[in-house]
Amino acid sequence: MSLSIDDVQRIAKLARIRVNAAEVAGYQTQLNGIFGLIEAMQAVDTAGVEPMSHAQDLTQRLRADAVTEPDRRQAFQAVAPQTENGLYLVPKVIE
Amino acid sequence: MQWETVIGLEVHTQLTTQSKIFSGASIAFGAEPNTQACQVDIALPGVLPVLNKGAVERAIRFGLAIGAKLNRTNVFARKNYFYPDLPKGYQISQYELPIVEGGHLSIQVGDEEKTIRITRAHLEEDAGKSLHEDFHGMTGIDLNRAGTPLLEIVSEPDMRSAKEAVAYARALHTLVTWIGICDGNMQEGSFRVDANVSVRPRGQAEFGTRREIKNLNSFRFLEQAIDYEVRWQIEQIEDGHRIQQATVLFNPDTGETRAMRSKEDAHDYRYFPDPDLLPVRLDEDWIEVVKAGLPELPEQKQARYREELGLSAYDAGTLTASRAMAEYFEATLASLPSPASGRGAGGEGSAKLAANWIMGDLSAALNKAELDITASRISARQLAGLLARIQDGTLSGKLAKQVFEAMWNEGGEADAIIEAKGLKQVSDAGAIEPLIDEVLAANPKSVEEFRAGKEKAFNALVGQVMKASKGKANPAQVNELLRKKLG
């Protein structure tokens, strides 16, 4: 599999990463290099091997259901660009 | 052409934990904005999610209640999209390996029973709230809800009408509140329904293109929205248009559905396993403990009410509409002296008698006062006291209604009300006979008509005697004595 220039631009857009026109070709080469690596790995016979969803073969630890976090709104909002009536303000989003 | 509707539902149920799914912030409703949004919920750099055992436990409870497969290993994944009410840039959800897979729920539509298959149920975090009111052209963000634990329950496209969809949604609502995993408060958004709706020519095997109606927060809106959507889709196709897959919103004011403006990449979520969370393992001991803690479920109760108590499917269904209702019914029955399915003086079993009063007079009084059965002014024990007096013949049906009314309005026990108001039924032949004699003497025409074979005239005479006794005479006895006199 290899990615087209359009694919790279689309991925950048989805990830909200600004990529200027001059950089696209470079990213395309690098990303295709990664796909090449994956292709090489796919040559390995993995029949009978259970897929892992995490690099570490460990189990999730669970937390007891209890409220442990105090209200720290003031501290958090002190570093926010803009707040009002306790709300964080962001550029208008309409769907 | 004959059209068939196909509906599948996705229901987001908010779980009844104290704290969030991945942080120790509170999920209590109605707090000041952002006072329950900690560093994990607002996604400060470097924070890590820690999974809440209470959320996992509730998902297990649900899986057991619907006879599903519990994935002993299940995995959290990132669902990537950018929206300010989700400051991480992704929602933590489950994708390839959800905690619950399969299972089913029975619904009752009219006289028909139908089984709806459940595809899966997965744990995920809720997003915050965006407020688009006037903040100088900006949007206000409240992240209190961000990270609230949700169980998203996805059905198969097994429903064929809005009525079936509503019946399924109601049965699911009953179940999740019954097993205590969700408070079911639809106004507060604890139980939100998305409906996937399509139509196809009757007899066609493949499904039509579906549109998804988002965020329906009442059963009435669910029914209205589906009905509108189905009519709209059929009209479109009959006018020669094709249905485009889309997400739509229902406007309760106009009763119409309207497509949301969709961004072309909106659904490219690029799911992948969340590296911040390890796979969740459910061990057998834990599952057994959860199973042992499950109450008798609505379907089990319904079956028992039908088989052991001899109630109809309708009665059994109504009495198990909520756990509180079923508990009230069972408490009433437990306080009655005669056996549940035995015959009382009223000629019906205690179970049927209690069912009739709870579904009839009590429900009507509760509705009128807009009270939940848990807040009933008449306790199950008080009601049983009243029913016992019907069964032993002290009260006729009519007198019992008067006692009920007094009990509802003024409180008190049935026996005390009967005594104070002199509502005891008269079953003494010596007291009833003189009344009959009076009535016969005053109504020679009716007597003649009866002798000529008119049964109607007999009923009129019974009515007169009852009236003369101010409703207190035992109607069965009046019947018997009157026949003897006339015969």
Give a quick summary of the entry.
By secondary structure, chain A is mainly alpha-helical.
How does this model look, in words?
Chain A is mainly alpha-helical and 95 residues long. Chain A has a domain at 5-42. Helix content of chain A is 40%, strand content 9%. A two-stranded antiparallel ribbon of chain A has the order 2-3. In chain A, a hairpin with a 2-residue loop joins strand 2 and strand 3 (87-91). Chain A is flat. The mean pLDDT of chain A is 91. In chain B, strands 1, 3, 7, 8, 9, 12, 13, 14, 15 and 16 form a ten-stranded mixed β-sheet that branches. Mean pLDDT of chain B is 92; it is low at 342-347. Chain B has three domains: 3-290, no CATH class; 296-421, no CATH class; 429-486, Orthogonal Bundle (Arc Repressor Mutant, subunit A). The longest helix of chain B has 20 residues, at 219-238. Chain B contains 15 helices and 18 strands. With 487 residues, chain B is of the alpha+beta class. Chain B has helices spanning 53-65, 162-178, 219-238, 284-292, 298-307, 313-319, 323-335, 350-369, 380-391, 397-410, 414-421, 429-442, 444-451, 455-468, 475-486; strands at residues 3-14, 51-52, 69-70, 73-74, 76-80, 90-94, 100-101, 104-109, 112-125, 129-135, 138-142, 149-155, 191-201, 211-216, 246-251, 256-259, 272-273, 280-281. At the A-B interface, helix 1, strand 1, helix 3 and strand 3 of A face strand 2, helix 1, strand 10, strand 11 and strand 18 of B. Strand 3 of chain A pairs antiparallel with strand 11 of chain B, so a sheet runs across the interface.
Q: How would the blueprint of this fold be written?
A:
The complex is a heterodimer of chains A (95) and B (487).
Chain A: H1 5-14, H2 21-42, E1 62-63, H3 73-78, E2 83-84, E3 87-91
Antiparallel strand pairs in A: 2-3
Chain B: E1 3-14, E2 51-52, H1 53-65, E3 69-70, E4 73-74, E5 76-80, E6 90-94, E7 100-101, E8 104-109, E9 112-125, E10 129-135, E11 138-142, E12 149-155, H2 162-178, E13 191-201, E14 211-216, H3 219-238, E15 246-251, E16 256-259, E17 272-273, E18 280-281, H4 284-292, H5 298-307, H6 313-319, H7 323-335, H8 350-369, H9 380-391, H10 397-410, H11 414-421, H12 429-442, H13 444-451, H14 455-468, H15 475-486
Parallel strand pairs in B: 14-15
Antiparallel strand pairs in B: 1-12, 1-13, 3-7, 4-18, 5-6, 5-17, 7-9, 8-9, 9-12, 10-11, 13-14, 15-16
Helix pairs in contact in B: 2-3, 5-6, 7-9, 9-10, 12-14, 12-15, 13-14, 14-15
